[in-house]
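anyone seen this seq b4? input:
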Amino acid sequence: MISNYYDGRYEVIACSDDGGNMLEVQVEVPEVNNTIETQAPHFPFFDIWPKWMGWRTVICKVPPGYIDAITLAAESDY
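predicted toks r here
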């Protein structure tokens, strides 16, 4: 669904925290300090947030390259 509105890099991860299970939507934006509305005006907030098909949804802004370098990186022995 996100790809229908957002052309940038993103990743959706099923995870959990103290509130239970959730979907974490990581969105790469040039300036993580700026609002996502100014950087991705067509992002589908109301279609997926705060719940999508019963899943609690959290949107996280991350800097460019973060998803490949951190989220999808192979585990290391360090």
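Residues 3 and 10 are 9 Å apart (CA to CA). The chain has one domain: 2-71. kinda curious what u guys think
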